[in-house]
Predict the 3D structure of the following.
Amino acid sequence: MSQIYSMIIFSIKEGIKSIGRGKLSFTFALLSMTIGLLLIQFSIFIILFSQQLENKIKEQFVINIFLDDGISKLRKDELREIILKNDYALSINYISKDDAAKKFIKETGEDFRDILDYNPLPASFVLNLKPEMFSEKTAVKIIDSIKNISGVNDVQYKSEFIAKILSFIERSKTYIFSTTIILILLAFYIVFSNLKLIIYNRLPEIETMKLVGAKLSVIKLPIIFNGIITGIIASGLAALFIVLIFYYSSTLFDSSHYVKSILTNPIFLISFVAGPLIGLLGSIFASRGISLKV
């Protein structure tokens, strides 16, 4: 156990020394990786924010269910229960004929009661769907099923504009996700290339270690720790920038609730371990070519 501990301490010290010996290459790798991690985290933030925006838009989608004239209160209550029993229903509100007339007059500024001696507007239910259940196809199926219920005169909804917005958000998430993958691969390549350069500069030292009988793990571990240390520092710098950016943005805009919910999202928190993980994988791949052959 003491030998393993000593070897780890030695490897960490050598990893730090290699950073000091190659300050220029380390600085370039650190800055490049920090920027890469910032872009990755920003991409993840945009994906999570667009998901929140998508759910918010879906909550605004309503289905207007117009009822038959003269429908009894008992039948209205039955209709409410029938609709609410379905998995797609989030909430349902009843609008009486009088409320419908008041709403019409408020929105149009015209009072039809000056011409008509009766109220032509029907009573209705306003149905909100659960965001996770919403799609244009499911909306059409829901409407068709409601139309066939006794006591329902007509069903209307406006989905074209909402469908376009949701379609745009979905396409944007696909592009952002693809960009995130490319950024991760780019960050990995930067670490890999930097460590290959460090290995090349240390070839005489590595050859000497082979001649004196050093184990392969003793040769490789400092390189691996170099990658991990670079990743940890880059993640720390990226985290600092992210916190500062979102702190000032939340003070400028009324978005603290959304920002806080995203910053505490497990997916976003996992992104902070991307640096050490990329550093670890990059160093493992970079040191694969090292062997004990002299």
User: Anything to note?
Assistant: The radius of gyration is 31 Å. The chain has two domains: 2-56+164-286, 62-158. The longest strand covers residues 89-95.
